[in-house]
Design the sequence.
């Protein structure tokens, strides 16, 4: 009798374990299949081009448009080393492309994100003359989209700062021509950001460093290797935000686990430009990825937690079986 009870208990426990393990594998397979069905589409936009040289360094033949293109080419290479990622460039040479065309290109590619790549020069709207900043959509119209843009900005700034660049925060800016969104809130000042909002497309503009700052130029922009480092930082920030997996890790036992740690309790400075005059800027701080926010892109945190819970219950069942 004791023996029979033991056998029944053993069969039940075995069935449970098989069920639990198959559930884990099904979940994992489903996640991978879903991920493969829809690749992450990123459009990189090297700022300026052709007769529009962007910012420049006096006395030296260094123009922003060329630096932006090099960063974009390196960034494309680096992003393509991640699984299931499609990357397009709005220009691959020294071409002049208007902003609406760049936005339209990204819309046609059904981009998950449009990332415009620039380098800064000192001007009246910001009270700083060196360091990195990311321009993103302001709050007040499509808040969920604005939040995503700000979160991607946090990830990029976090990586650029690791190179030693001064983090000048996220910059949002009001239209100075009284352009408004349908809810009457002042529109975003920058056409590419506004175009992204109007097309429900996550759009950010990265100002890597100041081309007219001697220290920034020397440390971050003065060689191809340095531009490559900027591109790698951008790629890591993007990969961290989207929880991308490196292609080389695809067939390892750790597949699905080799992800960059998501940001936690990340506090970022927001500079809101109200009228183009630095002394009127509104400065605030926001915490992103706080303990209350559980949803990550691709929901990997939930996946990991479920896997952990199931593994723990399998272990406890083994114990009860003995
Ligand atoms: Zn520019």
Sequence:
């Amino acid at each position: 009798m004791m023996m029979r009870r033991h056998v029944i208990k053993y069969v039940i426990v075995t069935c449970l374990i098989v069920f639990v393990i198959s559930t884990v594998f099904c979940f994992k397979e489903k996640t991978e299949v879903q991920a493969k069905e829809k690749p992450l589409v990123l459009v990189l936009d090297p700022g300026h081009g052709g007769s529009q040289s962007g910012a420049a360094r006096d006395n030296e033949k260094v123009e922003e448009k060329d630096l932006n293109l090099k960063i974009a080419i390196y960034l494309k290479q680096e992003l393509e080393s991640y699984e299931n990622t499609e990357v397009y460039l709005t220009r691959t040479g020294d071409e002049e492309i208007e902003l609406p065309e760049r936005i339209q290109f990204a819309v046609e590619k059904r981009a998950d994100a449009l990332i415009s790549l620039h380098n800064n020069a000192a001007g009246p709207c910001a009270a700083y003359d060196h360091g990195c900043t990311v321009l993103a959509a302001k709050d007040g119209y499509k808040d969920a989209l604005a939040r995503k843009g700000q979160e991607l900005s946090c990830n990029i700034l976090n990586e650029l700062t690791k190179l030693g660049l001064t983090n000048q925060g996220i910059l949002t800016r009001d239209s100075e021509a009284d352009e408004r969104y349908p809810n009457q809130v002042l529109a975003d000042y920058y056409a590419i950001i506004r175009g992204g909002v109007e097309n429900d497309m996550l759009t950010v503009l990265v100002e890597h460093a100041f081309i007219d700052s001697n220290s920034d130029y020397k440390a971050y922009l003065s060689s191809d290797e340095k531009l490559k480092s900027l591109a790698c930082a951008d790629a890591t920030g993007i990969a961290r935000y989207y929880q991308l997996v490196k292609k080389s890790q695809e067939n390892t036992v750790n597949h699905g686990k080799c992800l960059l740690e998501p940001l936690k309790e990340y506090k970022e400075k927001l500079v809101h430009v109200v009228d183009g005059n630095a002394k009127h800027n509104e400065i605030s701080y926001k915490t992103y990825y706080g303990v209350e926010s559980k949803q990550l892109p691709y929901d990997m945190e939930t996946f990991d937690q479920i896997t952990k819970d199931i593994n723990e219950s399998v272990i406890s069942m083994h114990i009860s079986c003995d």
